[in-house]
Amino acid sequence: MVNGKSYLTLFVLVLLLPYPSLAKQGEWRPSPRGALLRAFIFPGWGQFYNHRYAKGVGVLLVETALVVELAQRWQTTNQLWEKSRSYPPGSEERQIYQDRHLRAEERRNAYIWWTSGFIILSALDAYVDAYLFGFKRDFQERLSLEVGPAYGVKISLRF
Predict the structure, then answer these.
(1) Is 20 exposed, middle or buried (0-12, 13-18, 19+ CB in 10 A)?
(2) Are 84 and 94 in contact (CB under 8 A)?
(3) Structurally, how many domains does the chain consist of?
(4) What percent of the chain shows pLDDT beyond 90?
(5) Using CA atoms, how far apart are residues 103 and 136, in angstroms rounded to an integer?
(6) What is the torsional sign of CA 64, 66, 71, 76?
């Protein structure tokens, strides 16, 4: 049961998430830890935080679909269990529903693993995206290609 204390705790957690770090030049960079925590709190929030909007929408849609499907499989498993309990012990009908329940339980457990794995991977993706935020721009600033007279080419990489 969700009460006011749970909402207050969630609100405080969101407020206490690490603020984005500042780069040496004073430009905004996302905090990897903040992106990771945001990704665990709400589907796609870590990707949105990293300005990866298309990826955030994709994560939101897939994660929501996985959770909804998991909830339906959980409900089906419980219904089959209750149905099997409605028949007398040792009856053929009870055995049929117990077998169906076991198969549904296996599928539900597999979905738990798939959903958990996707949530963890999306959170790690948000962490890595935050860590590498601006890498392409930084790399382009350090790599230069110059074409000189007489068909000379100079490639340099600053570390």
Answers:
(1) middle
(2) yes
(3) 1
(4) 61
(5) 48
(6) positive
